[in-house]
Design a protein that fits this description.
Belongs to the peptidase M18 family. The protein is α/β, with parallel strands linked by helices. It has 2 domains: about 5-115 and about 275-480, 3-Layer(aba) Sandwich (Aminopeptidase), CATH 3.40.630; about 115-260, Aminopeptidase i, Domain 2 (Roll). The chain is built from 13 helices and 23 strands. It has helices at about 20-25, 25-45, 50-60, 70, 190, 195-200, 230-240, 275-290, 320-335, 345-355, 405-415, 440, 465-480; strands at about 65, 80-85, 90-95, 105-110, 115-125, 130-140, 150-160, 165-170, 180, 205-210, 250-260, 265, 270-275, 300-305, 355-360, 360-365, 385-390, 390-395, 420-425, 435, 445-450, 455, 465.
C-alpha cells in the first residue's frame, strides 16, 4: 500500500510512501501498460468536451447502457444501466444498485473541459497578405506556451439551415496544421524584459490559417474587385469543405488544441504525455471503473461535466441543475408501488446521503520546481492515486474540506482493496492553489473528497502523468463505486 500500514495487518508506527511499481506483480505490470494504451487512444481522439461525450456515450451503449428516456416509462430496477447527456457537453452514467436511492449514490465526478484557444465569434481577418483567426483563450493558461505549436482545429458549426457540421482538421498525417507565431529573439529585447504574464497579450494569440490569394477579379474600370483576396480564398475553401459562409462563424464553436497523438514519455515508457489530461485522465479512469462494475449495493454513478476550468458556470457546468434534474428523473422512475414518501424528499435524502469522489488531477512534485511544493505534503508521480483533503487557496478559500470520518472511510476502502494511494495538497501555503467541482457537490450535504492523478506541467499543451498512477486511479474508483455506505 502507498500508505504503509504494515504486513499481516499490523500497523507500522511510521508513515511511509512506496512506489506503485514495487507493489505490482509481473502480470499486473502488463495490465498497467495495456490500460495506458487504451487511455492514450482516448486522449488522442477526445480533444474537446463534445468529442469526449461522444466517446463515452458510444462506449456506454456498447457496455449495455441505454438513454434514460428509453427506460423512464418502464421503471428502474437493480442492475439497470442508463445515461443522461446534457447538450453534448456533459454526461451522467448510472448503474442502479440494490438499495433504495434514498440511501444515496456512490458517485465519482470529473470535468471534461481543458484549457485551450477558442475562436472569437467573428474570427477571420486578413493582415499583411496573411489570414488569421482572432481568439479568446479558455481557462488558466501560460499564454507563451501556446506559441509556435502545431495546432489542430476541432469543433462544430451550425449552418444557416440548422445543419450541424463537425470540424476536426490537423490530426491526420496529411492534414495541414495551424499555429500562433512568436517574435524572433533577435528582435525580442523589449518583449524579454517584460514579466512572463505580460510578454504575450491575450489579443496577440491569433492563429495563422492561410497565405494564398483567391484568383484575381477586376471591375470594368480595371480596379481590383476584392481587396481581401487572401481572406476570400480561405472563405472559398471553407465553403467547399463544410458549406460555410463567414456568417456561420457566429454559430460555431471552434477550439484550437495541440495537434497530434498522446505519446509515451521516457526510455522506459513510464509516463503518458499529451494534451487535456486535466481532467480527462480522471474522466477516462472513472468511466472505465464504472463499466467494469458487475453489480453494486448502492447505485453507482459517474458524472462528467463541462466548464470547470472557468468556474463551473453555464448550463453544462457543475453549478447547473443538470445533476439535480437527472437525479429527480431517477427517483421518479424508481418509486416502488405504494411509496408514500414524497419524491422530492427522496431526492433530497439521496443527495445528502451520497458519498462522492471529486476526481481531479493535482500537482505532482517536479524536481525542476521543488520550491513551490511543501515536501512532506506533496504528491509524487508513480506513488499512486492522490487524495487531497482540501484544495482552495488563501487560507482554504474556495474549497471543500473532507471530514476525518469520510477520510477514514475512504482510507479503509482503499486499504482493504490494496489500493496504492498518497495524500497531498496543491502547493505551499500562500503559493497559490485552485479548486475543483468538490465544493459544488458539497452544497448538497454529501461527503466529498478530491481524489485523482498527479500531473507535471498541468494546464500546459503537453501534460505528463505516470502510467502506474493512471491505472491505480481506475482501481481506486472501481472499489469506491462498488462500496456501500455503512
Amino acid at each position: 500500500m502507498g500508505k504503509k500500514e504494515g504486513k499481516n495487518g499490523k500497523n507500522c508506527l511510521a508513515y511511509k510512501l512506496e512506489p506503485v511499481w514495487d507493489s505490482l506483480k509481473a502480470a499486473e505490470k502488463e495490465k498497467v501498460q495495456a490500460f495506458a494504451e487504451g487511455y492514450k487512444a482516448f486522449l488522442s481522439t477526445a480533444k474537446t468536451e463534445r468529442e469526449a461525450v461522444d466517446y463515452f456515450q458510444e462506449k456506454a451503449i456498447a457496455q449495455g447502457y441505454v438513454p434514460f428516456a428509453e427506460k423512464a416509462g418502464q421503471g428502474l430496477k437493480p442492475g439497470d444501466k442508463v445515461f443522461f447527456v446534457n447538450r453534448n457537453k456533459a454526461i451522467l452514467l448510472v448503474q442502479i444498485g440494490k438499495r433504495p436511492l434514498s440511501e444515496g449514490l456512490a458517485l465519482v465526478g470529473a470535468h471534461l473541459d481543458a484549457p485551450r484557444i477558442d475562436l472569437k465569434p467573428n474570427p477571420l481577418y486578413q493582415d499583411e497578405k496573411m489570414v488569421l483567426f482572432k481568439t479568446h483563450y479558455y481557462g488558466g493558461i501560460k499564454k507563451y506556451q501556446w506559441l509556435t505549436l502545431p495546432l489542430a482545429l476541432h469543433g462544430v458549426t451550425v449552418l444557416g439551415d440548422g445543419t450541424l457540421r463537425k470540424i476536426a482538421i490537423g490530426e491526420k498525417a496529411d492534414d495541414p496544421v495551424f499555429t500562433i507565431t512568436d517574435l524572433l529573439p533577435h528582435l525580442a529585447k523589449d518583449q524579454m524584459e517584460k514579466k512572463m504574464s505580460e510578454a504575450v497579450a491575450g489579443e496577440g494569440l491569433n492563429i495563422l490559417v492561410g497565405g494564398l490569394p483567391a484568383d484575381e477579379e477586376k471591375e470594368d474600370n480595371g480596379k481590383e474587385k476584392h481587396k481581401e483576396r487572401f481572406k476570400k480564398a480561405i472563405l472559398e475553401l471553407l465553403h467547399q469543405m463544410y458549406g460555410m459562409t463567414e456568417e456561420d462563424f457566429l454559430t460555431s464553436e471552434w477550439q484550437g488544441v495541440p495537434a497530434g497523438s498522446a505519446r509515451d514519455v521516457g526510455f522506459d515508457r513510464a509516463f503518458v504525455g499529451g494534451y487535456g489530461q486535466d481532467d480527462r485522465v480522471c474522466c477516462y479512469t472513472a468511466a472505465e471503473a464504472l463499466f467494469a462494475l458487475t453489480e453494486s449495493e448502492q447505485t453507482a454513478a459517474v458524472l462528467l461535466v463541462d466548464k470547470e476550468e472557468t468556474g463551473s458556470d453555464s448550463n453544462t457546468g457543475m453549478r447547473s441543475r443538470f445533476f439535480e434534474n437527472a437525479l429527480a428523473e431517477l427517483v421518479y422512475a424508481s418509486l416502488p408501488q405504494g411509496e408514500l414518501t414524497p419524491p422530492e424528499l427522496i431526492q433530497r435524502r439521496c443527495l445528502f446521503n451520497t458519498r462522492a469522489l471529486s476526481a481531479d488531477v493535482t500537482a505532482g512534485m517536479d524536481p525542476n520546481y521543488e520550491n513551490v511544493l511543501e515536501e512532506k505534503n506533496a504528491t509524487r508521480l508513480g506513488y499512486g492515486v492522490a487524495v487531497s483533503k482540501y484544495t482552495g487557496s488563501r487560507g482554504k478559500y474556495g474549497t471543500s474540506e473532507a471530514n476525518a470520518e469520510f477520510m477514514g472511510e475512504v482510507r479503509r476502502i482503499f486499504r482493504d482493496a490494496g489500493i496504492v494511494w498518497q495524500s497531498g495538497e496543491l502547493g505551499k501555503v500562500d503559493q497559490g492553489g485552485g479548486g475543483t467541482i468538490a465544493q459544488f457537490l458539497a452544497v448538497y450535504g454529501m461527503d466529498v473528497l478530491d481524489c485523482g492523478v498527479p500531473l507535471l506541467s498541468m494546464h500546459a499543451p503537453f501534460e505528463v502523468a505516470h502510467k502506474a498512477d493512471i491505472y491505480m486511479s481506475c482501481q481506486a474508483y472501481k472499489v469506491f463505486l462498488a462500496s456501500a455506505k455503512k
